[in-house]
């Protein structure tokens, strides 16, 4: 069974929710964090038929979004249960909700959406879909529900929830809307007439219309607080009242002037006592009796089907409408499109974005971003923009630019703090040395960057032990010895910290040397142990496998990988393989990107590596001196990449 | 043939004809009117005073926003987008600027209205907030919401302090980099210690102490930390990290919120809780907002 269904906005406010079993809010929070913000979990595209899923603590979450309105629809259910109809439910509910409340959502200055009458629609959808999945015989059974019972139930639970509040506040909002006209982009305008077309076209004969009119009247009487029997009548009324509000009055009037007449007539008729009105409703108009004498709730289903059909038609009509209309129409459209491209206010589609995005991808590739990362960035920009309207006096290109800048900032900004000094202090308070180890491919500058980090730590008066765990390459230990000698000389001159080398010669097992070094440091009172490792090719399984043992024995607090800024698309594979090589539960903690001074503005490697793993860049190597180590400035890297 | 052409439009435009005069007249009269209309429409209709909600993720910013908007807290999740909502100050509080007004005055109603801007607090999405901080056009005050219970722990305290440090530094930069001698408009900061209903929550004065201490630590470790890559990579923005700025009195000694008053930022700490307990208790926050309006 479904545990929870929630409709929330991107700004975090839950608009509507239905709970069947209690699910902690952290489940959905972690979905938002992992999928929408950090993009750690890559959802598969919607083209593959099913909605993307996310698993957390025994729950499966499926979701769908409406970009331009900023809505997220999430369904949560137990992973043990296999639910085939959730995709359909999400689609239908999305169409219903956008159809019913799209106009309210356009109002950008408020977080309130008056959707407390959504419950019956949702219930019906659930019943219908559950019925379908159960099979033929039970399908009718699920649909056949005595109207009174469902009505009372849903009305009782939905109405009191927010209503008193809403009623209390409504006057305030009305006045505010009147006195300060808010310039909202009016996307829904052109679509509304089309909706009412469909609606009134399908609407039944006079009886139905008059009934709707009556409901409108009831709504205009500002819905007196009702109880008991009236609730069922009122709920029916509300369902359609809702419809009126959404399509707007102008649509209905323009389409069918008699509607207005009807409306006043029914208004008169409606002055009769409520109980009478209950009797007066013709059963044929809102349901039909089956052979067994049970009611089939007709109008809610009909209405829902209409709304869903409209929404689907609208989403499909986008493309054919553009191509249709003959030569004149298309050329006019092209001119209009060009014009709007300059002035703004163009609704972006896939085709509009395809070419500029291709250009953007090329641009990123030129900046040495790996193709995979560039494609993913462009995809995320596309996801961000399709369906949006460009703001006035901005072209599609500049919109893409700003969106890309946003995506780059998001991908490069670290989630957690990268303050190495503070981490060292925290670890040292528990009376053990802070262990930092460095891995990487051959010749990227592991030892050089290690000694740069050592220099930085020495300046902060730490006692540093450098462990030479590269027992493979000849000259590696000697190289570190030279570095240590230089650093000792420097620190003596500046009165900074203390540094020493821990070495066991060549040919020994690196993991054991590292573990010994940590033990030695703890005994001798060093705060920090820096472990240098042998360079290894990331696709050599034999060499990489020894890293797992290394991580287990040395237990480094931080593992940094050094990557060159020079490397191109291989950076993605490097980062991935190294990240996976430390065994389950342990990965890299950060990157050091070396040789940044040699590439100019082609700093794409940073993005590729972060893209591949979601691990932040901690340091940048920008020169040959010990002091040439820098932190990452996200803004300037973005500027370089976009220049 | 004459040096001019009788039939050309240029001749007609300069000839003393009735139609030419009429067109010129109309143009002269209508153009300013149309221009005015256009510009008037373009400009934002009203500039409401706004308050910025900033703070780490999960501290209760969006919940406070919904509480202010609809007098009850809606269920909320992690925000991924900013949200601006036009709200009214609750009836019990009187804006500072309208103490002399009678309650029936329509201007009174107007002065109670303000814009509450919610920003996402997740580390990757703080650029929404920093963008607002860089150009605080109508911002009357900043409400830094924090979780008083998480501040009791090391990690929560550090995250909060780092964010608060950045916010205060941005405000200080704005003051010191101002070119006018008068200095920019003052922007006070309210540190709203939320979730006071929880058992583990620290009382406001302890929150103040802890934050001041943690901000001093942040400042110290930033001072020791590495330089930014901005200059070396970018080349063009030389002065970006040439002069690094330090929060409060040149970054010496321990930091206190009082030091921020020198740069036009008064920091106040008030406790409260948006959810939980018998009911929401955010009285002191509203009083603070009322004092800024």
TrEMBL record, chain A:
Listed Basic residues bias regions: 234-245
SRP54-type proteins GTP-binding domain location: 616-629
Major localization listed first in the record, in broad terms: endoplasmic reticulum
Membrane topology listed for this record: Peripheral membrane protein
Ranges of biased composition (kind: Polar residues): 135-152, 176-198
Places the protein is found: Endoplasmic reticulum membrane
PROSITE patterns per record: SRP54
Cellular component GO terms, alphabetical: signal recognition particle receptor complex
Region feature (Disordered): 130-253
Pfam families: SRP-alpha_N, SRP54, SRP54_N
GO-annotated molecular function: GTP binding; GTPase activity; signal recognition particle binding
InterPro entries assigned: AAA+_ATPase, Longin-like_dom_sf, P-loop_NTPase, Sig_recog_particle_rcpt_asu_N, Signal_recog_particl_SRP54_hlx, SRP/SRP_N, SRP54_GTPase_dom, SRP54_N_sf
GO biological process: intracellular protein transport; SRP-dependent cotranslational protein targeting to membrane
Record's keyword terms, sorted: Endoplasmic reticulum, GTP-binding, Hydrolase, Membrane, Nucleotide-binding, Receptor
Assembly with partners or alone: Heterodimer of an alpha and a beta chain.
PANTHER family: SIGNAL RECOGNITION PARTICLE RECEPTOR SUBUNIT ALPHA
Similarity-based family: Belongs to the GTP-binding SRP family.
The protein's name in its UniProt record: Signal recognition particle receptor subunit alpha homolog
Species of the source: Bimuria novae-zelandiae CBS 107.79
UniProtKB/TrEMBL annotation, chain B:
A cellular component term, taken from the record's GO annotations: endoplasmic reticulum membrane
Top-rank taxon: Eukaryota
Keyword tags: Endoplasmic reticulum, GTP-binding, Hydrolase, Membrane, Nucleotide-binding, Receptor, Transmembrane, Transmembrane helix
GO molecular function: GTP binding; hydrolase activity
TM annotation in the entry: 20-40
Presence of keyword Phosphoprotein: no
InterPro entries referenced in this protein's UniProt entry, alphabetically: P-loop_NTPase (IPR027417), SRP_receptor_beta_su (IPR019009)
Protein name: Signal recognition particle receptor subunit beta
Native source species: Bimuria novae-zelandiae CBS 107.79
Main localization of the protein described in the UniProt heading: endoplasmic reticulum
Localization per Swiss-Prot or TrEMBL: Endoplasmic reticulum membrane
Family, per entry: Belongs to the SRP receptor beta subunit family.
Membrane disposition: Single-pass membrane protein
